[in-house]
Design goal:
The protein has nine helices and 20 strands. The protein is an alpha/beta fold. Helix 7 runs parallel beside helix 8 (245-256). It comes from Streptomyces roseolilacinus.
C-alpha cells in the first residue's frame, strides 16, 4: 500500500437537529417541551432571531449547515463521521428525570443527509430521550435513509457493532471501522445501556484501563488487514477545558491497542487535542449544529464558534499525516464563515489548551483557506 494518498476523515462534535432546528425545517414536529423554563421549541428560534436576525421558515434542508457544505465539498473527505445527538421519531414518551429532550421528525432527515455523513454516532445522552420506542424509530429512519450508525442498537451486539465504510483502492476490501460508546460522565443514564435482547447504547461505565481493554478486544475481532479504526466516545462535562487523567489513560490505551483515531465529544466547545504515538486524539470536538444562540451564561467559552475537523491519515499506518480545522460560527441557526478575529480567538485558545498535550495550533493564510492546523511538538518535560 506504499505510495497511496492519505485517507481524510471529517469528524465533528454534536449535531443537534432537534428542538429549535427541527422547527425551522420543512416538516416541524410537535414543539412541546418538558423543560423547566421553556415549554415550546419555537422559543429557541425566537432567541436566535433576537440575537442575530430572522430565520426563514421553512428553511431549506441544507440551511443549518451553511458554509460547512461547500467547505466539505472542497476538502472532499473520504469518510464523514458525525455525532447525531437527537432521536428521530414522532413517537415515544419523554424520558423522565431529564432536563432536556431532543427529537427531530423523520421527514426532516434530508437536513442530515445534506452533509452526506457516512456514519452517524448514536452513543450519546439524547438518543433515547423518547425512550426505547424513540431509539427503534431512530434506527429504522436512519436505515431507511441509507445512513450507517454506530454506538446504539436493538441489542448489545448491535450497539457494539462497528459501522464499516469501504475505502476505494486497487486492492479492495479496505475499510474505516467506526466504533462508538458513551459514558455516564456525559450524562448517559446507566439504564440506557444495551443488553442482550434490550435496545440501548454501548455504555462504558468509566474511563478505565479495563474498559479500554474490552473495546480493544472488540476492535481486534472486527479488524481486517488494511482497516483504519476510529473509536468515537461521548464523555465528560459540557464546559471547561480540563481533561481527566482517566480520559487520557483510556485514550492512550486505545491507541496502544491499535486504534487510529479517538474521536471525543460531549463538550459544547472544543477541548484539547493530542497526537499520541503518531495517532490523533480529540478530547472534545465541541458542538457543530444546534439551537443554542441567545442562551447566556457561558460566554467565556465562545460556544458560537465551531470547528470542522479534517484528519488525513497515512493509509498503511493510520498515523496522522495532517489535521486541519475549519472555523465557522453559528448565526440564525446556520453556520457562517468565522471572522479573522474569531478564527484568531479559536486558534489562540486551542493552542493554549493543547500545549500540555504536545500540540501547537497555527493559522494558515486566507489564501490557503484560513484553516487552523495542528503541529505536533515534543511534549514539555
Amino acid at each position: 500500500m506504499g505510495g497511496e494518498s492519505a485517507v481524510t476523515l471529517f469528524l465533528c462534535g454534536d449535531v443537534m437537529l432537534g428542538r429549535g432546528v427541527d422547527q425551522i425545517l420543512p416538516h416541524p414536529g410537535d414543539p412541546t417541551l418538558w423543560e423547566e423554563y421553556v415549554g415550546d421549541a419555537r422559543a429557541y428560534v425566537a432567541l436566535a432571531e433576537a440575537a442575530h436576525g430572522p430565520v426563514p421558515r421553512p428553511a431549506a434542508p441544507s440551511w443549518p449547515w451553511g458554509v460547512a457544505l461547500p467547505l466539505l465539498d472542497e476538502a472532499a473527505p473520504g469518510v464523514r463521521v458525525v455525532n447525531l445527538e437527537t432521536s428521530v421519531t414522532r413517537r415515544g414518551t419523554p424520558e423522565p428525570g431529564k432536563a432536556v429532550h431532543y427529537r427531530m421528525t423523520p421527514e426532516n432527515l434530508p437536513s442530515l443527509a445534506a452533509a452526506r455523513p457516512d456514519v452517524c454516532v448514536l452513543a450519546n445522552n439524547h438518543v433515547l430521550d423518547f425512550g426505547r420506542q424513540g431509539l427503534l424509530d431512530t434506527l429504522d429512519a436512519l436505515a431507511a435513509a441509507g445512513l450507517r450508525t454506530a454506538g446504539a442498537g436493538r441489542d448489545l451486539a448491535g450497539a457494539r457493532r462497528p459501522a464499516a465504510v469501504p475505502l476505494p483502492g486497487p486492492d479492495g476490501g479496505r475499510r474505516v471501522l467506526v466504533f462508538a460508546c458513551g459514558m455516564p460522565s456525559s450524562g448517559v443514564p446507566e439504564e440506557w445501556a444495551a443488553a442482550p435482547g434490550r435496545p440501548g447504547v454501548d455504555l462504558v461505565p468509566a474511563a478505565t484501563g479495563a474498559a479500554a481493554g474490552a473495546v480493544v478486544r472488540r476492535v481486534r475481532r472486527a479488524r481486517r488487514p488494511g482497516d483504519l479504526v476510529v473509536v468515537s466516545v461521548h464523555w465528560g462535562s459540557n464546559w471547561g477545558y480540563g481533561v481527566t487523567e482517566g480520559q487520557v489513560r483510556f485514550a492512550h490505551a486505545l491507541v496502544d491497542g491499535g486504534v487510529d483515531v479517538v474521536h471525543g465529544h460531549s463538550s459544547h466547545h472544543p477541548r484539547p487535542l493530542e497526537v499520541y504515538r503518531g495517532k490523533l486524539v480529540l478530547y472534545g470536538c465541541g458542538d457543530l449544529v444546534d439551537d443554542y444562540e441567545g442562551i447566556t451564561g457561558y460566554e467565556e467559552y465562545r460556544d458560537d464558534l465551531r470547528l470542522l475537523y479534517l484528519a488525513a491519515l497515512e493509509p498503511d499506518t493510520g498515523r496522522l499525516a495532517a489535521l486541519r480545522m475549519a472555523p465557522v460560527r453559528a448565526r440564525r441557526l446556520r453556520l457562517e464563515q468565522a471572522s479573522d478575529a474569531e478564527r484568531d480567538w479559536l486558534r489562540a485558545t486551542l493552542d493554549r489548551v493543547s500545549r500540555g498535550f504536545g500540540v501547537r495550533v497555527v493559522a494558515e493564510s486566507r489564501e490557503r483557506g484560513g484553516m487552523l492546523r495542528a503541529v505536533p511538538v515534543r511534549p514539555p518535560s
